[in-house]
């Protein structure tokens, strides 16, 4: 390939960035020639973080239900759950009936519920609010995510953070490094393209820093693709990635479980479940989505309890915002502000954290934030990932106490 074409190709790859290379097969700006999954297994006591993003704005009020509060029933006369329908947590709050497995975690003191989580001056746009949660920057739009900044500060291993799925979330994008994107349904790289990538990965002293980053991406792809083919469903790397479905949350967490049990040295996994934008006919839709979440997490966490690596694993589940207190005219709810964050796993100290927001002392119909989401991240970074949280969440944050 002529040199000018090579340079144009590298520059184009640098522009693609976190959106993905080769239509999203992988997007990693990471060091070369690393084969950590086979040659350097995860140290036994390393903390592992699994981030579950609930896209669409989950209604926290009908998830952690204030069933004993008359204001709840007054605001949602047809949408509210009766006291006998909820899974009680105490005399005031109960879980949605779709969350039976999480209710059992609560009884075993392995479920922490952080209440009223949000940020100052909330934004009701899905896109802007999710950007804020994923970048941990409520005031200024920034191009890097909180996990991406951890990647920048924590080394060069291309397996440190994995998004299960081909579309890399903003939280996983750093200035120097990004997470790997993994999907079983991505077709194998054709041999002619693989040969081209191999040629493109060769060092060239005239490359710019961005072009060198793309070269590292090509080399890292050659490492991560066969490595994860080894552990996904136990299939051979030559046939991995051709048929299995990773669209469901259960399938995504099955991939994570297999990787954890195979000692892949990944510290952060990212998975997701969508559909929570419940403007109409919310009750049945949300309950089914929460049951899907519960049905995926319950067996996953059961597997992790009996595994020497899984015993150090923590799951965080969050959504970009909660919903408004009052139901709308379509038996649904509209975009709101604060909501609950769930933490699960053996290292978690179960219970409530953060103050319960008032259903009557509102800001423009929305719950007031009582816990800053960056404090949740601060504790996960300091306690689970054993790292300095400041590069990811800035100064002035603190641990909450759930670990």
TrEMBL record:
Listed PROSITE patterns: TAT (PS51318)
Domain of life: Bacteria
Coiled coil: none
InterPro entries linked: DUF1501, TAT_signal
One Pfam family this sequence matches: DUF1501
PANTHER family (alphabetical): BLL7424 PROTEIN, DUF1501 DOMAIN-CONTAINING PROTEIN
Name of the protein in its database record: DUF1501 domain-containing protein
């Amino acid at each position: 390939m002529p040199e000018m074409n090579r340079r144009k190709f590298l520059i184009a790859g640098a522009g693609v960035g976190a959106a993905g290379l080769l239509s999203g097969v992988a997007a990693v700006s990471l060091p070369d020639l690393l084969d950590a999954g086979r040659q350097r297994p995860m140290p036994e006591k390393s903390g592992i973080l699994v981030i579950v993003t609930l896209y669409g704005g989950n209604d926290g009020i009908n998830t952690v239900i204030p069933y004993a509060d008359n204001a709840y029933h007054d605001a949602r006369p047809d949408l509210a759950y009766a006291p006998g329908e909820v899974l009680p947590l105490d005399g005031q709050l109960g879980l949605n009936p779709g969350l039976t497995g999480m209710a059992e975690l609560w009884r075993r003191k392995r479920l922490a519920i952080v209440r009223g989580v949000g940020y100052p001056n909330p934004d009701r746009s899905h896109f802007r609010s999710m950007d804020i949660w994923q970048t941990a920057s409520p005031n200024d739009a920034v191009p890097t995510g909180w996990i991406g900044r951890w990647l920048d500060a924590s080394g060069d291993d291309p397996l440190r953070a994995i998004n299960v799925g081909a579309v890399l979330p903003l939280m996983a994008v750093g200035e120097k490094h990004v997470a790997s994107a993994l999907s079983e349904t991505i077709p194998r790289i054709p041999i002619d393209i693989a040969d081209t990538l191999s040629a493109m990965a060769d060092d060239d002293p005239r490359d710019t820093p961005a072009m060198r980053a793309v070269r590292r991406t090509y080399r890292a792809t050659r490492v991560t693709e066969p490595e994860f083919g080894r552990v996904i469903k136990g299939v051979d790397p030559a046939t991995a990635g051709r048929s299995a479905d990773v669209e469901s949350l259960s399938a995504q967490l099955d991939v994570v479980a297999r990787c954890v049990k195979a000692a892949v040295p990944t510290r952060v996994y990212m998975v997701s479940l969508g559909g929570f934008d419940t403007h109409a006919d919310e009750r049945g839709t949300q309950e089914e989505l929460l049951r899907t979440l519960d049905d995926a997490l319950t067996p996953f966490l059961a597997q992790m309890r009996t595994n020497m690596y899984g015993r150090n694993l923590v799951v965080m589940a969050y959504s970009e915002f909660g919903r408004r207190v009052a139901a709308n005219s379509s038996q649904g709810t509209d975009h709101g502000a604060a909501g609950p964050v769930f933490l699960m796993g053996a290292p978690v100290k179960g219970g409530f954290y953060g103050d319960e927001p008032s259903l009557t002392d509102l800001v423009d119909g929305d719950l007031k934030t009582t816990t800053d989401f960056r404090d949740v991240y601060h504790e996960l970074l300091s306690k689970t990932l054993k790292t300095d949280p400041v590069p990811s969440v800035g100064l002035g944050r603190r641990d909450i106490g759930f670990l």
